[in-house]
Amino acid sequence: MRKVGKTADDIFAPTAQETTRRGPGRPPVHDEEWTKVTVVLFNRQIVFLDRLAADIRATTGAAISRAEIIRALIDALMDSDLDLTTVTSQADVKALLSDRLGE
To answer: Is residue 56 within 8 Å of 62, Cβ to Cβ?
Structure first.
């Protein structure tokens, strides 16, 4: 007599969709190694970043995240010739950057 139906191995075998399921959130688009970090920002800074991202999207149609803006600012600072080794506080960093930007 011939068996009808699937075996337990067939029922519980992963499907192609299950083996290629990606994790939660957006797919990573980074070209280099990265580490997720937690940074405490003030509410006013989050509001600024969100408004900036919304203004960029309204003006150009490009979607840019808070993280992308922050990474770009850090990269620009790394590429600059600013010497931050003498600063002793957040206020010092702000003053040095404001001086350089002409604020």
So the answer is: yes
Per residue in 37-62, pLDDT tens?
999 999 999 999 999 999 999 999 99
CA angle 57, 55, 95 (to 5 degrees): 130
Rounded CA separation 37/40 (Å):
10
pTM, entire model: 0.69
What are the angstrom distances between the C-alpha of 80 and each of 29, 75, 83?
25, 9, 9
Domain residue limits, the chain:
34-98
